[in-house]
Each structure stands twice: as structure tokens, then as C-alpha cells.
Specification:
Layout lengths: L7 H6 L2 H8 L51 H7 L8 E3 L7 E10 L2 E11 L3 H14 L4 E2 L6 E11 L2 E12 L2 E11 L8 H21 L4
Antiparallel strand pairs: 1-2, 2-3, 3-7, 4-5, 5-6, 6-7
Length: about 220
């Protein structure tokens, strides 16, 4: 079989650095610190806290660290969504693996190309995760809610054309307590120049997101 040139957009994606550069995900880097303990030598009477005094209650977090992303998606899901890919996947380097981890799978089988990214991002609190979720889903208009996935979830599918080659990409963003699960799944057919259907891409991205959310919920909690 002759080698086929990849479109520029797909070639660029083969670089993990490019994947990280285009992701543009911003994270809050640390938990809120609890207020200092009260002085034991102070008046033993019950203290009265003024309205302006800082709270002594630390913010609780359901998830303290991101799980291993390459083990978060079932093998049968990988073989179905990315035929020919190594099921072990490849983890993308992160500046802080406690807060963000990403795994990628990609393969060209015959003329059919598929790419799957699964990311976990840990924030300081449910409120922070809700804010991040709202900002990202607002930016990616045209999609819809995904029922039964995490605390809330959203999916959107778009198609692009470069050099007459179509690529269809689906993105699922799910919030699970103080964590975000972000899945990107795309595909192209280099023989027909057409992309897989929106239904195929959307269902595939949602399936991977459900696997990842289940792995997060079944793992270690903070």
C-alpha cells in the first residue's frame, strides 16, 4: 500500500507539543489554605467571630489528583474507536501531573484515520469546576447536554475541510464534582476524502467520556 500524505491539520496534531499548545486549558494550581488555628492561650470563653473574620473551614475536594489517563478507557472502547492503535496509548507530558493528565491514541488503518484524546483536570472546588465548565461550553456553541454523564456534560461536533479533505471532530466536556473530563475524538477517510458521520463521532466521544468518568469516580478520592 502506498504511503498517503496527511493533511497539514492532522500532521500538526501528531506532535504532543501541538496538542498541548492548542488545548489552551487553564487550571487553578492549588487548594485554599485553612485559616491559622486559634491561640490556646486566649480567653477560654467561646469566641465570637465577626462578620469580617476569615473562615476557618477549608474547602473540601472530592478529587485531589488526576488519575492515570491511559488506563481510563476500556480496551474494547479503544479498539472500536481507534482501530489499529496501541491500546496502551501515549501520555502527554504535563507541567503538573497531579492537576492535569492527558492520554492520546491515534492510528491510520487502511485509509481510515482516527484520533482520541482523554484529559483529566483537577480544580480547587466544585465551584471552580463549574465556572471552568460554563466558560468552555459557552465557547463551544452549537452542541448539547449529555444526560447521565458526571455532574453535567456537554458535547459538540464540527467538520472542517482542508485540501478537499474532510475531518470531523467531536468534543465532550464533563464535570465530575471538582474535576473536568475532556474528550476529543476525530476522524477522516483519505480514500473518499469524506469524514465519518456526526453520529459516529459524537457517540464515540461520549462513550470514551463515560469510560473516563467511571474510572475517575472509581479511583482514589481526596
Amino acid at each position: 500500500m502506498r504511503d498517503l500524505p496527511l493533511p497539514l491539520a492532522l500532521t500538526a496534531r501528531l506532535s504532543p507539543v501541538a496538542v498541548l499548545a492548542t488545548a489552551g486549558w487553564a487550571l487553578v494550581s492549588g487548594p485554599f489554605a485553612p485559616a491559622p488555628a486559634a491561640d490556646h492561650q486566649a480567653d477560654r470563653k467561646a469566641p465570637v467571630q465577626s462578620a469580617s473574620a476569615p473562615s476557618s473551614t477549608a474547602v473540601s475536594k472530592t478529587y485531589a489528583a488526576a488519575p492515570a489517563p491511559c488506563g481510563s478507557v476500556a480496551v474494547k472502547t479503544i479498539t472500536s474507536l481507534v482501530p489499529g492503535a496501541k491500546t496502551a496509548g501515549k501520555e502527554i507530558p504535563s507541567t503538573d501531573t497531579k492537576l492535569r493528565r492527558t492520554c492520546s491514541w491515534n492510528a491510520l488503518k487502511g485509509y481510515d484515520y482516527r484520533w482520541l484524546d482523554v484529559s483529566f483536570e483537577i480544580t480547587n472546588s466544585d465551584e471552580t469546576a463549574q465556572k471552568e465548565y460554563k466558560e468552555r461550553t459557552t465557547e463551544k456553541s452549537g452542541g448539547g447536554d449529555v444526560p447521565g454523564l458526571g455532574s453535567s456534560a456537554y458535547s459538540v461536533v464540527n467538520v472542517t475541510t482542508e485540501d478537499k479533505q474532510q475531518t470531523r471532530e467531536g468534543v465532550v466536556i464533563a464535570r465530575v464534582s471538582n474535576a473536568l473530563v475532556v474528550v476529543t475524538y476525530n476522524g477522516s477517510d483519505f480514500e473518499t476524502k469524506k469524514a465519518p458521520s456526526a453520529d459516529v463521532i459524537n457517540k464515540g466521544a461520549i462513550k470514551a467520556a463515560k469510560d473516563a468518568a467511571a474510572a475517575l469516580e472509581g479511583g482514589h478520592q481526596g
